[in-house]
Design brief:
alpha+beta
Length: about 90
């Protein structure tokens, strides 16, 4: 049995999402989060906002050591729809 644990963020703006994340990452926040907020706002404007965040995956009672992003992209072959660094939607 596999569980995918998401945090629903469909009702949050990029600013609210960043503020929520800062509560957990305090010292790691700062400039990195400012940059992410700006990129997320641009993605939202393009129609590609954050709806949820995959936090961890549990398989057969054990946490999967691989990052959730790696599981989505490599194992499950999910293709990203937006590149935050390029600031644009990706072709499907």
């Amino acid at each position: 049995m596999v569980y995918y644990v998401f945090i629903d963020q469909s009702g949050l703006t990029p600013q609210q999402w960043i503020e929520w994340r800062e509560k957990f990452h305090k010292s790691k926040a700062g400039e990195q989060f400012d940059s992410a907020k700006s990129k997320l706002e641009q993605a939202c404007t393009a129609g590609c906002g954050v709806g949820a965040e995959l936090r961890f995956i549990q398989k057969n009672g054990e946490l999967v050591a691989k990052s959730p992003e790696a599981v989505l992209r490599q194992d499950l072959k999910f293709a990203p729809i937006y590149d935050l660094n390029q600031g644009k939607k990706l072709s499907q």
